[in-house]
Amino acid sequence: MRTPGNFDIEPPVPWWETPKKDRWLAYLAAWLGGRLDVFDRAIFLPIMVPIANRFGVPPTAAAVGFTIAPSLCPIGADALGSADPAIA
């Protein structure tokens, strides 16, 4: 018989053991994808003007595209995330 205040309390599970292997791999893939995206942009920045000149585009237009593209990423992520049936 249990007395009041005598509860069987399980020790808490460490936070890193809560997600399973597939979740950790998905997180790692997303993290690496973000790092590679940043790396691509860092590589493109110094060669943006020669590429723009090669295609006959004013460097200012290339810089505007370089600036607008990352600002639209949250909109695309929201649209694609809301389209996922597992999330909805």
Please describe what this structure looks like:
This protein has one domain (20-83). The mean pLDDT is 81. It is mostly helical and 88 residues long. Helix 1 (21-54) runs antiparallel to helix 2. The radius of gyration is 24 Å and the shape is elongated. The chain has helices spanning 21-54, 59-83.
Low-confidence stretches: none
What is the quaternary state of this protein? single chain
Q: In sequence order, what are the helices and strands, one letter per element?
A: HH
Q: Got a strand count?
A: 0
Strand content: under 5%
Radius of gyration, rounded? Answer: 24 Å
Shape: elongated
State the end-to-end distance: 45 Å
What is the count of structural domains? 1
Overall mean pLDDT? 81
Structural class: mainly alpha
Helix content: 55-70%
Question: How many helices in DSSP terms?
Answer: 2
Main pleated sheet: none
